[in-house]
Design a protein that fits this description.
The protein is mainly alpha-helical. 86% of the residues lie in helices and 0% in strands. The termini are close together.
C-alpha cells in the first residue's frame, strides 16, 4: 500500500469512527423507539465499515 493510499484509509477510518459515534450519541437522545432503532442501526453499519477498512491495514 502506498503512503497516499494509507492516508486515504486513515482518513476514511476517522470519518467512519465519527459517524459511528455521532449516530450512537444521537440515538441515545431520541425518544421515538423506531427512529432510535434506525439510528442505532446506522451506527452499527458504520462500525462494520470501520472494521472492514481497518482490515485493509
Amino acid at each position: 500500500m502506498t503512503s497516499k493510499e494509507l492516508m486515504y484509509v486513515e482518513d476514511a477510518l476517522g470519518h467512519e469512527k465519527y459517524f459511528q459515534t455521532s449516530f450512537r450519541e444521537t440515538a441515545d437522545k431520541l425518544s421515538d423507539n423506531s427512529l432510535r432503532d434506525l439510528v442505532r442501526e446506522l451506527s452499527q453499519t458504520h462500525a462494520e465499515i470501520y472494521s472492514n477498512l481497518y482490515g485493509l491495514l
